[in-house]
């Protein structure tokens, strides 16, 4: 917990690794008083939210999507698809007890002083967290969260209902941010410094992300076109790090180099290193990107060096221009009337950005490189999304949503499926009778959105 103190004293309000029952986290009243200034409460919630997107959930997702291989302790079991409900308690509590509950409190306080800027920021953050919960578990509490008087044991809304609610929440957030009413949080906003334009763009990219997750390609295109369009990367939402252990270090680096060295590698059976190494063609040279992500390429371990993807001070991507372009690229091909040229343009926009990071490695594709064939271009886009999202939960979302289009081989021979969801944590099952029962085989049962035809 100390690692976040650099960003704000309010972190003491946010029990990141709390073991208290999860239902308590769902039922913290949004009207709970606090003497802390609004901008500091926001700051603390933002810092704590990084754990949900960069911490244990991302590492487990990376094992299931095979960016990494679990080699010791809990991760060795997960690598062999041996898992228990207890494995997911930390992620559940981080999302609900910290991010969702704290952003609800922020919204209540912002409404009390008519600060629509902070209100909108908190709504974007809460929508992002609810959306991730739906991604990972499917049906989750949504509509009854935050009202302990009326709903002491909140119901589980369907995944479809949660995604719809997330879209409404993001639309409301955008409206509030456009109002430009209220004091800006300024530098206390560690993601965008109170820049409402950047928050609006990020909210639109989130809308596009979640529409892509439900295969609504028309809306994915509509909102991605209003999303992060800054090709310099300066408008990306990034979790910034300073590199000091137990203060502000990149969470992957902290875990892999200090906390649990050896538990997570990139050796076989990890799929991503060899897949990335094999993507070279006449217009693509993946040597530099491969070396940035993995050490001992094609990969025995993640690159923990100062100039590596998982370096001690390397920022961690949350919502980016690259993701926005790759949403457009896939959605243009998957819509009812595929648009090859628009998809190719979006992919090339992303490759042009990559070329600013790895100069000379990515030339623009032309239609003849894919024989103007939609399926061939889609395969390239799917592969590019997979390697772009190495280390991010969105990679796990992709391999489930596109029903393992890349043909990743499960790590065990007892199943032909990759893991499909996180399990409901045991403490939630113990305290909330509305929790769906966890049955045998649920680990390999697709969520509603992912069960539909890709």
Describe, in short, the structure shown:
This protein has 454 residues and is mainly α.
End-to-end distance, in Å? 40 Å
CATH class of the domain at 2-194 and 392-451: Mainly Alpha
- Percent range for β-strand residues: under 5%
Mean of pLDDT:
92
What is the third-level CATH name, the topology of the domain at 2-194 and 392-451? Serine Threonine Protein Phosphatase 5, Tetratricopeptide repeat
**CATH architecture classification name of the domain at 2-194 and 392-451:** Alpha Horseshoe
Poorly predicted tracts of residues: 1-25, 29-33
Number of strands: 6
Strand order of the largest sheet: 1-3
Task: Estimate the helix proportion, in percent.
Answer: 40-55%
Largest sheet: 2 strands, antiparallel
Topology as H/E string?
Answer: HHHEHHHHHHEHEHHEEEHHHHHH
Shape: globular
Rg from Cα: 21 Å
Number of helices: 18
Structural class: mainly alpha
Spell out the blueprint of helices and strands.
Blueprint: H1 22-26, H2 38-54, H3 56-64, E1 69-70, H4 73-79, H5 89-112, H6 116-137, H7 159-179, H8 196-213, H9 217-224, E2 237-239, H10 251-259, E3 264-265, H11 272-277, H12 287-293, E4 294-295, E5 301-302, E6 316-319, H13 321-334, H14 340-357, H15 374-388, H16 393-401, H17 426-431, H18 448-451
Helix pairs in contact: 2-3, 2-5, 2-6, 5-6, 6-7, 6-8, 7-8, 8-9, 8-13, 9-13, 13-14, 13-15
Structure description:
The protein has 454 residues and is mainly α. The protein has a domain of 253 residues: Alpha Horseshoe (Serine Threonine Protein Phosphatase 5, Tetratricopeptide repeat), CATH 1.25.40.390. 48% of the residues lie in helices and 3% in strands. The longest helix has 24 residues. The N terminus is likely disordered.
